[in-house]
Design brief:
By secondary structure, the protein is of the alpha/beta class. It is about 60% helix and about 5% strand. A hairpin with a 2-residue loop joins strand 3 and strand 4.
Length: about 1150
Amino acid sequence: MNNTQEKITSEIRFAVVMYGGVSLAVYMNGIAQELLSMVRSTSLSLENPDDLTGTASVYRDMAKHLSAKDKGAFDYRFVVDIISGTSAGGINGICLAKGLVRGLDNLKALEKTWLDEGDIDKLLNDRQSQPDRYNSKEPKSSLFNSQRMYAKLFDAFKEMQSAAANKAPHIYAMDLFVTATDLRGLQLPVLLSDGKAFERLHKHVFPFAFRSPDLYPNRTQDHFTGDYDPMLAFASRCTSSFPTAFEPVTLDDIMLFLKQHDPKSHDQFKNNLTEWERLFFSAYSQSDTGIPLLKREFADGGYLDNRPFGHAIQAIHAREAYCPVSRKLLFIDPVPETQDDIGQMQEISFVKNSVLASFALPGYETIREEIDALRRRNNWIDTVNNILDKLDEQNIATLKTIIEKHFLEFQDKPEPRPGNVDRTIAKPRLFALPSPDPAKADNSANSPAHDEEVRLFWKNVSSKKSAEKLTACSTIPAEEKRSDEELPKYDSKDLGEMVETLGSGYTAYHYTRLSNQTDQLAQMIIRAMNAERRPDIAKVVTQIVTAWRKDHFASTHKDCDKYGKKTENMFFRNFDIDFRIRRLNFFRKTIETAIQAKSTKELYFDLIDEGKIPDFKLDEDFATAIMVVYNAIVDSIKQLYRLKALLLSDSSQNPLAVTAALLRARIESLPEEERQACSLPPISDSFDKLADCFDSFSDRSTGKATFGSNVEYLMMRMNVIIKKGWRGRSKMTGQRENGCDGTVGVCNRIYDAFETLGKKYPEITGRIWYVYDYGYDLYDSTKLTLLAGGQYGEGRRVEVYRISPADTVSLWDESARNRSKLAGIALSAFGGFLDREWRRNDILWGRLDAAERIISAILPESADAAMKTESILKAQKAIIDETTRDWMKDLEGSRFSCVKDSEQYNRLQSIRKLLDSHADVLPDGSVPHPPEWKTQFSSAYDFHREFEPEPNLRRLGRSSAILSSMIDRLDGGKGIGGKISAYLKTLNRVLLGMLDFSTPKTMLGVLSHYWLQLIVLVSVTMISAGYLLGSISSMKAAGITVNRCGWVLLALDLAVWIIRMQLKTRIHKIGLSPWIRKLFRTPAAASIAAVLILALLFLASETMFVHREEILTILKTLWQIFWKGFLEIITQQIGLGK
C-alpha cells in the first residue's frame, strides 16, 4: 500500500443498478470492466499507481485534476460500494462486486467466459451441451442446459478467487443485492389496526455484503470469499432463470449436482447451509407454509423487479459518511425506451385491450417514482441547508449571549489578578482578538487589562480549567468529559430549563429526538431477536420500550420528584448515539472546509467581530495541529458507527441476543388477543400494566424471572454497552477481539484532542468548545426537526446518471444512423448468443459507453469541459486499442478460411493502423478534432448484421426438438388445466412437425424422426389423391387402391411413432447411465425398422400389383410435385435467414 503525505480522502461514491437483458449481459460485462477499472485507478491497495495503463490511468489523471482544483487538500477516490442487479445485470453485478472485494486487476476471465460459453451451440439443451457431464432432465424442462449454466458460473467464480490470491480489496464496504422470484411465494402477515391479513411475498433478494476488518473490526463480513462461491453461483442461476430458456432452480437441485460432480463443494455447501439460510433466507425461518426451503423454486428476478432501484436507494440512505462524499447513482439500461412519434390515434380493439391487460402492462415497470423520490430528497436537503444558513445569524447571536453571560461570571480562581477589572467594559472586546496573530496569545505588558481578561477567559475555556463553572448549563454530559466525575447539572435540567437556555425552538426538537431515540432502541431489540419480519412482535416491543422510558424518565422536575424519575436529558446521555455522530460530523465538515480553503475563518464559527482580523490564512503548523483534531474526530465517528451497527445487527452478532430472545419468548407466549391488547391503550401506556399482563402468563411458559426484571436487565445491558463499548470474543480462540469504544471513550478522545489544540491556539479552541457544548444544539434543533421522518444517510445530494447506447453519441449516434450499436438486441435480446463476433462487438460498446458516461458523471461541471473531452478521447482510444488487438488475435486462425472473419479482420486492421501511428498529431504539434483514428472508427467500424442461414437453421431444428420434449413433459392432470395441456401438446406437434419438415437435421435425426413425419405427409397426399381418382370412372379402382394404401401407411406410421415415443419416455425414466440407455435404444430402433419393413411387404399386395402401372404413374407425379415444393421451402428458409 503506498504511503503518501497525509491528506483528507474525498470519495466519489457510485451506487450501480443493473437491469435484466438476456444476452445483453455481454454488453453489461463491458460496463462492469470499466467500473472496476475506475475503482482500481484510485484504490489504496495499489503498490505502484504510476504503473497504471489503459483507462485506469485516465481515471487516475481525473482524480489528480480534482485534487488540484481543491489546492491539493484532498486525495480523491472513486468507489463503487452499492450494486443492485436483476437477471443478466444480477450476474454481472455479482462478478463486479467479487472483483472489487477480491482486488482483481480486471474482469478478463469473465469476458472469456461470456465469449466462449455464451454460444447458443453450447447452451442448447441437447447432446451438444454435454448432458453426460451437465445432466439435464428428460423430457426436457428448458431450452438451454440449466445445470451447465450453474457449473460455468461456479467455475468463473472459482477462477476469480484463484486470481485474487493475497490481493487487498479495492473497497472497504460493499452491499450487493441480487433479485429473484420465489414461484411458490412466502405467506406473511400484514398487520392491521384490529387484526392481520395475509399475502404471498414472491419477490426475493440475496443480500451479499462485505465490510473490511480495518474499518469494521467488530462486524467483519465477507460474502465474496471462495467459501461463498457456490451461493454466489446459486444467486446468479436464480436471477437469470429466464422463462423457457432456463428452468427454475432449487437448493436441492444444486446440492444434487454438486454431490455428483464436486463432492468437496457439496460438503462445503451442506456445512454452510444453516448459516446461509440465516443470511439469505431469513424470512423463511419466520413463516410456516409447509414448503421446505430446499424445495422452493426460484426464477428470474425480472419477473417482478427488473429495475431494482429500491434496494440501492435504501442502501444509500443507510450509508454513513466520515469523509467528504459525493454520491452518484448509475443505472444501466441496455435497451432504453425512445420517444414515440406522434401519429394518428387508433382505436384500441378488445383483442389489443386484452393483450395489454394480460401481458404488456403488468410487465411494464417504471422508474419515475424512485427518481422523483430522489429528486424530492435532494430538493429538501437544499431547502434545509438554506434554512440553516438563514438561521445561522440568529443562532450565533444566541450563542454569543450565552458566552457573554459566562464571561461576566468568569473567575480565575487559581491565580486571582491584582486590581479590579470591570468585565462589563471588557465584554465588547470578547469577540475581538487581542493579537493580530490568531494563533497566539498576546503576553506583552502593554496589553490593556480588558484584553488580558478576554485572553485569560478563552485560555481557561480552551483548557477547561473552569469546567465546573462552564458546564453548569452545558448540554454535553460531564461524565463523558471525565468518566469519574459526578453526574453533571446538565442531566438534572428539565425541558423548561433547556428551553430557557436554548430558546423556544428546543421543545419540538426535544420531542423529535425523544421519539427517534425510542424507536431506535426498539429496533435494536427487534433485530437482536430476529423479529424484523414479525410486525406483531415488533409493535409490542416498541410499546414496551416506550412504556419503560416513560416509567423511568420525565420532562419536568415535578414529575421527576413525584414519581422518582430522572430527566429525559439523562435518557439522551445514556442512549443517544446518533446525536454524537451528527455533532462530530458537523465539526468534521467544518475542518474540511477550512483545510480546503486554507483559511481559519470557518473555525471561528462567526464568533468574532467583523473587520478586526487581518489574516485568516491557515499556516503549516496550524494545519498539522488541526489534522490531529480531525483524525480524532474521524476515528471517533467510526467508533460510534461501529457501536451503532453492532447494536443493530442480527442475533448472530448482537450482544443483546440472549436477553432479547427471552423477551421474544415472553411475547410469543401471550395469546394473540392479549398480545394485541398490549400494543393498545390503556395497557401500552403503563409499564406496570404491561408487566402485569405478561407476568400473568409467565408461570405457564417462561417461569422464573418477571417481565419487569427481564426488560430492566435488557435496558441496563444496552446502556453499559453504549457507554463502555464492546469487545467481542473470537469464535476460534474465545479471546476478546477488537470491537468498538463506547461514548465515554469517544468523548475522552475528543476532549484530549481539543485540550492539546488549546495549549497553542486558545482563541480558536475556546470557540470550538462553545460550539461543541452549546452551539451545535442550536444548529441540530433546526436540522433534526426538519429532516425527521426522512432517510438522508450521508446527507448529500444523489446525482442520477444512465449508461445506455442512446446516451453516448460521439462515436456512433443510433438515432442519426438508424442502426443499433448492439447486436445482442436481435431476436428479443437473444442475439448475442448466436455469434462470437456479435459478443465481441457488444463488449466493446459496453466499455466505450461506460467510459464516456463515467467521465461525464465525475466531471459534470462546465469548468471541467476541456478535461472531460480530453479524458473521453483518451479512454476511447485505450479501449479500442485493447479490444481490436485482442479481437484480431482471436481472428488470426479463422480469417483465412472464413470470408466473414477475413472482412472483420481487415476492418479492424484499418482502424489499428491509425491508432498505432501518430496521425492524431499535426506537423505543428496540434491535435486535430476529431483525431483521424476516431474518424476512421466512426466511418469504418461495424459488425456483420446478417443471420447465417446454415447454422441458424440447424439451431432452429435443434430448438424445435427440445421444445417438443418440453411439451411432452407437461402434466395433463385433471380439469381445465389438463385440457389446456392436451391442446398445447397437440398444437405443438402440428406446428413443430411443420417446422421440422422444413428444417434440416443431422443424419441420425433424419432417419429417426424426419422421415416419420415425411411419411405422414405422403400418406395424407395419397388419401386425398385416392378420393380424387375415385371420382373418375376410368380410374376408380386405382383410386380405391391408392386411398387404401394411404390409410394403411398412415396407420402404420402413427403406430411406429407412438411406439417410438413410449420407448423414448420409458428409457429416459430409467435411472441408468447414458451408454446403457443407448443399448436400450438399439433394439427399439431395430423393432421400428422391422415394423416399417413389414408395412412395405403388406403394401406389396396383389391389388397393388394389378394396378401397378397406374400407381407408379401417380406416385411419380406426386413425387415431382413434392420435390418441387420441398425445394421452394428450403429456398424460403434461406431467404428468411438472410
